[in-house]
Amino acid sequence: MAKIIRAVGHSPISRQYTASAIFANIFHNGPITQREISRTAGLSFATVTSVVSGLEKKGIIRRSDESSTNGGRPAALYKCNSTYRYVMGIEARKDELLFIVSDLGGDVLSQKRTAFDKKIGKDGFLTLLVQGAKEQIDLFKGKEAKFLGIGVGAAGLVNPNDGSVAILTHLSNWGSVPVKQILEEEVGLKVFVHNLAAAAVLGESWYGLGRGRQNFLYLSVTDGVGGGIVINGRLYTGASGTAGEFGHITVDDHGPVCTCGNIGCLETFISIPAIIESARKSLVDGVSSAIQEIAGGPLSTITFTTLIEAAKREDKLAYKLFTDVGRYLGEGVVSLVNLLNPELIIIGGDLVRAGSLILDPVKDVLKRQALEVARKSVEIDFSELGGSASALGSLVPLIEEFVASPLLD
Ligand SMILES: [Zn+2]
Asked: Helix axis angle, 304-312 relative to 272-284, nearest 10°?
């Protein structure tokens, strides 16, 4: 390693910088030839050859099976050796923990969901968190040293200074939850903690539909409505970090009271609990429907899955519920399109399971109400990350840090 470093620069910082620039090129653009790296990174061919050789010896990069025949002699193509290091991502929701282990390429090697009841309290929650993380590492016996760290995406307000979660949504009586501190002490790995929505945006941006996109919005609809705004390739967080709270756009001045204290917020119409509540209310009012029969029990047994099933069987009430949700969501989307002119809107969260029942009415409203120029340049689609966007996104900063200093690790 010392030899490589001497060959590429004069001060330790510039050497590391050079190695990092070359590795970043291979990581993001590989498979790539040394000639192409030299051109795109603006470094001499000799420097590139020297660093590439060092990175290859350490096993951080490897030669691709193919070679480039672009313009004459075949040249070796290099790419990141994804399995060189592992990272863990944890998604902490109000009633569930999702643990994933991925390699540097975002390929998920293992995953586990653990449901919990808020009655377990803060200490019970932290115990589950630590146990779950340790369990994942135990699955990789003998390879524990490969773990770069743990990224956590938590539902709540994250204190960026100490990685504690000030309010884990719906568990406000827990106070501050020292997620980072406990995990670092108990598991012995470096821990980054992010807000759930911000983590999901990173996940979409690296591994999902947001790849290569500079201006996009991510909207997540599950128990609440959250999301993020990416402008010029960067997450826009706003003056105090609350940007992307799409759920509190007013869509009906006479609507229900929202948890934020306002009236008729988007969230009060399109969150999953709101949709289920609306179905129950209609049934109590005597609207004829097969929903209850499909649920097979009292009103309390109706779930989101019941409603999807009913709509698929062309139940009029279920169908109307989804059309209404799509319409409200569409109105919110129109405001966002007119205001921000994004190239893409990604919808994630459990609402995705309703598929075209939701997406069609959203597109209808968009077509009718959005400004023409903005509408013509926007695509709208469902996330393809299957509910793991936040877990995947939460580990991105660990990979970014590794890419920035591959020879220091
Ligand atoms: Zn609200």
From this structure: 70
